[in-house]
Amino acid sequence: MHNKKLGSKHIVFLGESGFPLGLATIQRLTLMARAFVHVGAKSTVICRKGVHSKDGNANFPLRGEFEGIDYCYTSQSIFKPKGFLRRNLQKIAGILGEFRTLKALKSSQGIDMIIVSEMKVVHILRYWIFSRLLNVPMAVNLVEMASSMQHRTSIFRRINDFFLDNWVIKLYQGALPISDKLHEYYAKVCPGKPNMKVPIICDFDKFSVKRKDSEPYFLYCGSFRYKEVRDFVIGAYERIADNEETKLYMIVSGGSVKETEDLQAEVNKQYKTAPIKLFSNIPYSELVQLYVNAIALLIPLRPTVQDRARFPHKIGEYLASGNPVITTNIGEVKNYFEHGKTALIANSYNMDAFSKEMKFIIENPIKSKEIGLRGQEMGRREFDYRTLGGNMWKFVENISAT
User: Fold this and answer.
1) Range of the structural domain that residue 91 is part of
2) What residues have CB less than 8 Å from 329, skipping those under 6 apart?
3) Whole-prediction pTM value?
4) Phi/psi class of residue 110: alpha, beta or left (left: φ > 0; alpha: ψ in -120 to 50)?
């Protein structure tokens, strides 16, 4: 497919550090930027601080290009310094460098829009000042309703999230919400402002890898902080694990190696063959292979405001694998999926209901694969980054005209 040139635009992304390495948030930012590049626009990502470990796999220059996207680190290092003083000096340098870089880009190339991925009010206020000084419109990449996020419990975060959801969000000239819930919320808080839903985005071609022979397993991918969901998946698996032939693989991000090993030992205590296997901090290529080899991919969504508002990035990657997805009928699921056709949808957020769909996968391998392939076709039609660039370009035009 050749790029359809819609015009010369320059979009700058702020708020995320770590590009081009990272999971959901970095992947979404990358694919939004690639969607703009695909229709002839220019995308630049500015990272204000180094977040990578020198012991990890990060090895790239401060400035460069990745998959057609320009990027730069204004912190003068891609690595996170050791020590409180050095970290904070780097942050200050990065913040000063952000404005210098934006000013230089505006002067040399022009900037048509700034897209912000940030939940801290203090940084959003700074970006608003930058946008006013440079006379560049600013839009929000809206993927969560901050005040509904259950793990954000500290008093400072609660105060931050109250102001963010009720006042600071009004500083943007427009929004790119990920779900109907957030689209409706932004329309209510900021009536009349440009507001276009950009659902999950995926590069389906990256999942065109050959399936390898392996033991049969279900795969769940989530964060250490979502203990409730992790325990739900384990509880559902317990109901269908009598002979332990079908395994449960769990990719848990955000935990240390020791935390992952301790959790794996704990959850396998009742089993003879240790059928639950945990992974953490694995290379993206290994993650893709685990998706492709699974017999089904698990993503239970809870009947909460948080899960109705969000649309997990990994659903797109699950679909791209061509394997069936098991989920619950919450939030965006009802807008895209049909039970038994493009996914298996438990009728409630209930371990028995969820395990029933897992059992269907084991007992109906051919039908399950057909569901996975139809889900992949639907996902490529709805969520591939190449299908979204045109509308996103029109969104920039719309904001420029207001």
Assistant:
1) 10-201+384-401
2) 339, 345, 346, 347
3) 0.91
4) left
Alpha helices in 2-117 (DSSP H): 24-38, 84-108
For residue 240, how many C-alpha atoms fall within 13 Å in the half-sphere facing its CB?
A: 22
Q: How far is CA 387 from CA 54, 180, 203, 217, in A?
A: 37, 19, 10, 32
Half-sphere exposure of 173 (CA within 13 A, CB side): 20
244: left (phi over 0), alpha (psi -120 to 50) or beta: left
For 153-184, give one letter per residue: b (16+ CB within 10 A) or e.
eeeebeebbeebbeebbebbbbbbbbbbbbbe
Amino acid sitting at position 196:
M
For residues 99 and 153, state if they share a domain.
Answer: yes
Query: 314 and 193 in one domain?
Result: no
Give per-residue pLDDT as tens, 272-324.
898 999 988 888 889 999 999 999 999 999 999 999 999 999 999 999 999 99
Residues 165, 262 within the same domain: no
What CATH code is carried by the domain that includes residue 158? Answer: 3.40.50.2000
pLDDT per position as a tens digit, 105-141: 999 999 999 999 999 999 999 999 999 999 999 999 9
Number of domains forming the structure of the chain = 2
Task: Please compute Rg for the chain using Cα positions.
Answer: 22
